[in-house]
Amino acid sequence: GNSVTQMEGPVTLSEEAFLTINCTYTATGYPSLFWYVQYPGEGLQLLLKATKADDKGSNKGFEATYRKETTSFHLEKGSVQVSDSAVYFCALSRKAAGNKLTFGGGTRVLVKP
Amino acid sequence: NAGVTQTPKFQVLKTGQSMTLQCAQDMNHEYMSWYRQDPGMGLRLIHYSVGAGITDQGEVPNGYNVSRSTTEDFPLRLLSAAPSQTSVYFCASSPSHSEPGNTIYFGEGSWLTVV
User: Fold this and answer.
1) Residue among B106, B108, B110 with most chain A CBs within 10 A, to mutate
2) What distance lies between CA B36 and its chain's CA centroid?
3) DSSP codes of every residue in B16-71
4) Contact criterion met (CB below 8 Å) for B64 and B45
5) Which of residues 27-46 of A touch B (CB under 8 A)?
6) Could you tell me how far CA B54 lies from the centroid of its own chain?
7) Is the pLDDT of residue B1 over 70?
8) Looking at residue A41, what is its pLDDT?
9) What are the pLDDT digits (tens) for A57-74?
10) Which is deepest, A17, A75, B1, B32, by most CB within 10 Å?
11) Which residues are bridge partners to A102 per DSSP?
């Protein structure tokens, strides 16, 4: 079946540091890949997505590239801010499975001033 | 912009009680779903619906019931609450279940504690 594995947190960084959160997946065919972000006390918001191999999703300074050869979709940001403190979820969906989302376990990121 | 609205936001239940979590969306979305979020496990799909009158089970359906009588509403019923159902519940919707890469929109969550 489909699965998503992402690095466990918490990840603690200083402001302006470089952030990488690793995400790898297992799925048949060509899934769409997503990063969702959950700020404290809130629901999930779509951060970025990519629907085919080599696509790069980007938003709010975050980027992730769909790598079919390594089945990965790592999230990166060059200079984090305190406001980036949140839980980040990697997820995939497949059209053949009705586009239901399969989530990784989430990575908590804490950015200190 | 209402989006996906869930109620209640917080609820404490006694074991064996029943209750309904309400979910409504005003975006005319075809697809609606319920997830539960537990520490370290991400979100897991409970039930979903691809249109009014159509529902199906997700990954963890036991102990929950759903119905979809209108496009807008998708309530989740806990039939006889158990402590294992203590969790945060998210309702979600998207325009279609068949278009690749469809964005799924989430409600703000309902924190449920079963004692």
Assistant:
1) B106
2) 8
3) T--EEEEEEESS--SEEEEEEE-TTS-EEEEEEEEETTEEEE-SS-TTEEE--SSS
4) no
5) 32, 36, 42-46
6) 15
7) no
8) 81
9) 999 999 999 999 999 999
10) B32
11) A92
